[in-house]
Amino acid sequence: xxxxxxxxxxxxxxxxxxxxxxxxxxxxxxxxxxxxxxxxxxxxxxxxxxxxxxxxxxxxxxxxxxxxxxxxxxxxxxxxxxxxxxxxxxxxxxxxxxxxxxxxxxxxxxxxxxxxxxxxxxxxxxxxxxxxxxxxxxxxxxxxxxxxxxxxxxxxxxxxxxxxxxxxxxx
Length: 171
Hints:
6 helices, elongated, mainly alpha, 77% helix
């Protein structure tokens, strides 16, 4: 099997996780409420986001979401906690991912190549990605139960129009 063929399932996994994240992160408005840090252009310095700031960003994004899907009051009462809970559960994972990138660079710049350490780090990151994917999937299913089929379709269309660009360098 070619290297490209071997990477396709992995690439699809991460693409699906990103799509689920975009949906849970308010249908293309993104998981930016907790994925981005403060400061820098577009708030992307990667620094920590304090819980109060996270809540403010989530509230702002939820307001946009509610308008876009014409959410009822009952839906608002259910969706808010789903999104906020997922974001709070994923915040520590964001920190773990940042720490893993630093560890990878440390391993890469050492005088001696430690393949076992690289493999251990890779396995840890795959487990972390799996945990994140499971949490996103849970939130996605929870949100789907709250929304009507039409609202889900609206969010899906928005993701296809705007979500892809968000994950590839655009605001």
